[in-house]
Design goal:
The chain is mainly beta. It has two helices and twelve strands. It has one domain: Lipocalin. Helix content is 14%, strand content 48%. Strands 1, 2, 3, 4, 5, 6, 7, 8, 9, 10, 11 and 12 form a twelve-stranded mixed β-sheet that branches.
Amino acid sequence: MKTKFLKLSLLLTIILTFSNCKDKADAATISEAEEAAKSENTSEKYTVNVVESSIHWKGFKPTGTHMGTIKLQNGFMNAIDGTLESGSFEIDMTSINVTDLESGDGKESLEAHLMGTVEGKEGDFFNVNEFPTAAFEITGITPMDNGITKLSGNLTIKGKKQNISFPVNIYPEGDSMIIKSEPFLIDRTLWGINYGSKSIFDNLGDKFINDDMELQIVVIAKKA
């Protein structure tokens, strides 16, 4: 009986481990900043629709997750014959929105903490008074299998710039061009977002926040 129980426990552990791996987003490849991609003079310019575009984020801790959105402030893309060549956009860090909490139930206090508008906690996360915007500039577009494209670009947060690469779908829709990624992970500490990190601080116990932060981008740009 004991042997059967051990075998069953091992099988359940393997199943749960496999399930957790499948449910977890893939990590973006992160490296040093690179030179921004350039376009030909004949390229067509697309202006980002900041109303319809967004970045979805998710943070993890032992007791659960929080999620939300961030708006874009401006941006453009250049393409030749519908093929993306280059582009960049600014991210409005003052627009951080928490979507898993209701107003009056911790939503406003978490948003303020993330933005750094709470006195004495300005530097815990994004410190929007000092760094009101983040930025992403495309450095490479590499076709992959099944119509997927590897998009590479310099992501600047809190004045720190790192190059990240992740898979996206890029497709036209009328006079618009759409970039949509699957969820992907970045290590927030590489941009100096260290609050609650076990890799930075000792003796946090279970009061920590995972270093990995999940992002998903949806950028919609219209031909100028």
